[in-house]
Please model this.
Amino acid sequence: MPFSMKKCLFFISLIFASQLLSQIDLSLKLGAGVGFSKSETFNSVQDSYNTYNAATLKNNLSIGISKGFTVEVDGKFDNLFMGVGLTSFRTSASAKFSNEAKRYFDFKHNFYNVLIGFSRHKAGGELTIASGICVTDYFLTSYVEYATGDRDYSYGSLQGTYHTNGFGIPLMIEYGKHLDDNLKYFIYSRCQIQAISATKFTLFNIANGQTSAIYEGVEILDDRKQILFELGLKYNL
Amino acid sequence: MKTVLFITLSLSLLLSCSKQERNKRMFAGNWVLKNINTKKYVNNEETESKDTTYYGVMQLQNTTGVENHAYFTRFEPFNSNYSNWDVSDNEPNVIRFYLMNLDLGFNFSYNFTVEKINSKKMILTSFISDNDLNVQEKLTWEFTKE
Model:
């Protein structure tokens, strides 16, 4: 993409936040978690794939749980919360054939979030609710693993890596408890919902001449919705 | 201190490079073909493995223009033609060559799976398999950086 949405979004947040830095409490957050995701277009491809290959499939194509991490810098001014960070999650779908060959669809979703919301500290705990805007990087990699253990990224109508960028609106609810009397270290649990995707763009395979991800006439778009549950540590700077 | 840390972390996220551009830089350069290995399979069991020592040079250019060119020296079947090339986004799993000869009126493209790529070595593979995903033949090209 000639225009980087990521860079524009973070440049705006950087200018905005830098004006308030002297007045706000900053913290650094690291977390990891699991989640669930759903894509209407991929579900259609999944059904079509299982029907088309019914005679030779040993295990139908099905999607697993998502796993990932978050890195975030937060600022708090009274009860106002601001956050800038990256949440990256991976999900994999696989099908197994009777000769032990497998087809994989690996999804990687990066959310570059700018969050704003409400945060209240009370009796050793801190509740935060925030929303904002996110720029997304969405990758889909499809490959075959033969019974010999070799991977082939060039076989079939859905081959290689597809990519697109998009926008969305995240929703985050978080509860943290401090681990020390100085209120420097917090442990937190978070539920993050990436359900509102403002864009449903086409994914493109650059190494295949800009083809899109189409299987039996159904196109896979970046319409994946995710709900993610995280545990992590926060350090007040 | 807070200001410096905030700006540093934000800029790190801000300036994270396009993976596709990083992948292209990894592949660009002169690659010397050292060996071609051919493995044959029956019922997904290996029945034959043969190494062919073969000398050829493949130059992969990385330009800021729309197309990146690859030039081949003593390199069948490309001979001394050139082709366009592209690599996958995210992880460098695929390299694609697009060969066009307007004089002879043909064009074709071919994707290789990238088994390994680093600053010194590149291993490309391609497979011949049947409609039931049984491997019949695996070809492996081993290159070293010149």
